[in-house]
Amino acid sequence: MWLHPAPFDIHEGDDVYVWLRSDRNTGRAKVLSGPIAPDPAALAAAQPLKTDGTPERPRGDVATRYLVRYAHDGSTCSVNEARIHRVYPRNEQPTVIVTFDTTHYRRLARSQVYPPDSVLELGSSYGLCTTILHEHSNGQVIGIDNSSLLVKECQAKYPHMQFECVDVMQHGERVDALLQGRTIVFVDIGGDRCLEDVVAVLSFIMEKMKEVQLIVVKSESLVRDLEERDCVRPDGWIEDAWWPSIHQVVKTLQGQALLGSDRPKAEPWYLTAKAAQFVRKPSRYPSRVTADGQWICRVHNYTRAGCPKIDACAYNHSVCHHCLVDGHRALHCPIDGPPA
């Protein structure tokens, strides 16, 4: 398992991905030689100084470079090291890469996927990452999401791609069927999704997906747990003992929930927001939908005056943005404590 991003060393013979200006799948390459250091005199002349006297980042023409050979046509090129991205190894056991934000998640879609990969994306949302996966797998990708509204929007916008409305937490048999024959799974079931849900999904994938080579997951809760445990090497490698230990944590949390009450538990992001008295702008809270796929109005849920548009608002005003239960607002959600 790996935490991304993390520093890495470039060596002769490494398989890498060279960052291109487009989403084309022609960036895979092998390092032939390097590093090729810039001429000190040219570097000194080209590097402007910051106000504190330290040098700015060198220009591309004087940066350290590596000679690479592109896989798609065999051509060679001297490449700025800043454009070279790691390609993670694939072994007998699935390689799992954990990242915390959308930007790095989509960059991994470009740098880690290549034909003949076949990809399943859990949590396709608006289909933006799915389009990258489609390009880099030569069209061998299926995107699934639990919002029928988003799936219909993606189907209309990208008719050449396959999208399905499936809740990974509720429709395990359908997910199992879609996993068959897939070599890569990208998972974004909500970056702020609770730890138990993310671990449950990953465990399900590892159990069901016999041909899996690579799993990429975007999860703030997993990254927070890794940081708290201090079990990541400087190069991003996660200690082997972490995954079994996280299973034990989840079992403990589930046992506490069963012993304490049958009531649902508040999500961590909501407890943090509640402790801060909901000072953030409503748009900063995660987007959520009702069971029938209607977007829930965050302005109505997190401002005491409610949504000023009232009936003219196209979003749902009756369902709580936090617990998804009808009849109250997130400001007054009764889960885990009295109203704020």
Automatic annotation (TrEMBL):
Gene3D superfamilies (alphabetical): Vaccinia Virus protein VP39
Protein name: C3H1-type domain-containing protein
InterPro entries, alphabetized: SAM-dependent_MTases_sf (IPR029063)
